[in-house]
Specification:
By secondary structure, the chain is of the alpha+beta class. It is built from four helices and four strands.
């Protein structure tokens, strides 16, 4: 096994944290009833049958299997990509692991429940950001890391070549 795959522990940690927080939210919160934590942050248990921002949530159920297939394919593809990284591409490996962990956390929900459990809800001045979960945080931070690496990492590699 190559060194970049050692970061798969991070994917596993995200899955465990995601499932634990979703379990706690499902056990302690009433569906759709916000619990104010801060003036701009609520814990609100919601079930999302779609993707990000409830994309395709209103469809009759085919999207469950579509998004599950996408999550499996993405996780396999990203793991293969990670296995081909060089030892010094740490940010890329961490970013891929975070996306894999998030994808697998939400995949579990889709396969077991038929929906993704969301419970983190931010709002300001009557505007509410769609509820999300720890898996979504992993995916978002991983994507941000990939973007950062593609911009900053390429500059660094160009300087090293010259």
């Amino acid at each position: 096994m190559q060194r970049p795959l050692r970061w798969l522990w991070l994917a596993a940690a995200i899955v465990v944290l995601d499932l634990a927080t979703k379990y706690a939210a499902s056990a302690w919160l009433s569906y759709g009833r916000p619990v104010e934590v801060l003036p701009f942050f609520n814990l609100t248990l919601l079930h999302n049958t779609g993707a990000a921002f409830s994309f395709l949530a209103g469809h009759p159920g085919w999207q469950r299997w579509f998004f599950a297939t996408v999550a499996v394919g993405a996780s396999i593809g990203l793991t293969i990509w990670m296995s081909r990284l060089k030892r010094d591409e740490t940010l890329m490996a961490v970013s891929l692991a975070m996306i894999i962990g998030g994808a697998l956390g939400n995949l579990y929900d889709r396969l077991v429940h038929g929906y993704v459990v969301d419970f983190l809800s931010f709002h300001a001045a009557g505007w509410y950001y769609p509820a999300f979960n720890v898996a979504d945080i992993g995916i978002t931070l991983g994507a941000a890391g990939l973007i950062w690496e593609s911009v900053i990492g390429e500059r660094r590699r160009a300087r090293q070549r010259s």
